[in-house]
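Regression test case RT-17, inverse folding.

Input:
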């Protein structure tokens, strides 16, 4: 599954989308349209949208914080946090 998230600095809804995806351990590419004019033009060409966030999932576009659309693709429940390390902790004497 390929997921692209079109964002811009200071966008509160963009942060909510990224938090949602992070909670579900979804790997995504963040594309900052404020810093990448070509990506911004591509997003507008593909979606006719000038605002962010826009989430692209395998070529399907979700506009804004579309929780229903994201739930359908990624599940409704957040996953447990991933462990910080897979190595057992040891104590030294």
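Golden output:
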């Amino acid at each position: 599954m390929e997921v692209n998230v079109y964002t811009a600095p200071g966008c509160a809804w963009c942060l909510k989308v990224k938090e949602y995806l992070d909670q579900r351990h979804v790997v995504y590419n963040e594309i900052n349209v404020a810093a990448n004019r070509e990506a911004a033009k591509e997003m507008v060409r593909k979606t006719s949208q000038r605002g962010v966030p826009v989430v692209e999932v395998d070529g399907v576009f979700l506009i804004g914080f579309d929780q229903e659309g994201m739930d359908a693709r990624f599940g409704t429940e957040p996953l447990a946090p991933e462990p910080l390390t897979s190595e057992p902790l040891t104590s030294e004497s």
